[in-house]
Amino acid sequence: MTIYIDVVLIENLIMNYIILLATGLIMKIKIKHIRLIIAGLIGAIYTILTYAITIEMYSNFFVKIILSILMVYVAYNPQNMKKMWKELLVFYLISFVFGGAAFALIYVIKPQEILMKNGLFLGTYPLKTVILAAIVAFIIIIVTFKIVKSKISKKDILKDIKINIDNQQITIKAMLDTGNMLKDPLTGNSVVVVEKTALYQILPKDLLDNIENILGGDLEKISDEVKEKYINKLKFIPFSSLGKQNGMLVGIKPTFVEIDDEQNTFKKEKVIVGIYDKSLTKDGKYQALIGIDLM
Q: What is the pLDDT of residues 4-55, one digit of tens each?
């Protein structure tokens, strides 16, 4: 059987390029196509050398590991080891999907002449088989990642939380916000940011409607009964997010906050409820923000 080196080179260059491209898109890396082509060419040249030179199985395995690291490094120049390993992991996952699609098409097409050497398939199957396999695999990968991302967004990011203040409680949706690092500067307790409107059921209306006045030190519009019961429980929490720099939240110490994570329930007493005077989201999917430290 005649093997054309140029065809093998082009086929592997195309496959390597598309795998690296898919890796970059999924990892949201700034793509430089010339780097992808060079990295893909390195992998394609290795394929030709593997065909020409017999390599021991174990040696071949370690060479492939080194080759994949080299390809990812050339393609994306990761700035640290953490990024390197993440990109390498996604590169392998995508490679397995591409390989599975290619095997499936080879099985369906059943080319007459096909050779396997050193773990590599070579043969006279047309270039369009490789391109078709790449397209099929690319679609599978993109759709799968979108589904996974959607599931994570709905299941893992949105949590049911119960807020109890003096035996009055509400259950609302909260978004797990990894950027929420708010702490009470005096106690160091984590802050759960909650929309003011969600708290009307468990806190007095004249307290909630006068948040801005409280921040300014004006307590005239708050009844004496509410002042006596709640003023000493209030906290003042500086923040630089939520669309405002160097802002201040009024917070209150709850009896407890309970976070439902389906498999686990986290009950926190050392926590502050920060009262946010606006809406956190336009569609009303959640009314609170919780930090990852509360999980």
A: 677 678 878 888 888 888 888 888 888 899 999 999 999 888 877 776 665 5
Q: Where are the domains of the chain?
A: 5-125, 157-294
Assigned token pair, 38: 């060079």
Give 288's contacts (C-beta < 8 A, 6+ positions apart): 161, 172, 173, 174, 175, 192, 193, 194, 195, 198, 280
From the centroid of its chain, how far is CA 195?
25
Which residue in 265, 249, 260 sits closest to 192, CA to CA? Answer: 249
State which CATH number among 1.10.357, 3.40.50, 3.30.70, 2.40.70 fits the domain covering 157-294.
2.40.70
Amino acid at 226: V
| Model confidence, pTM | 0.48
User: Which residues are CB-contacts of 70 (< 8 A; sequence separation ≥ 6)?
Assistant: 39, 42
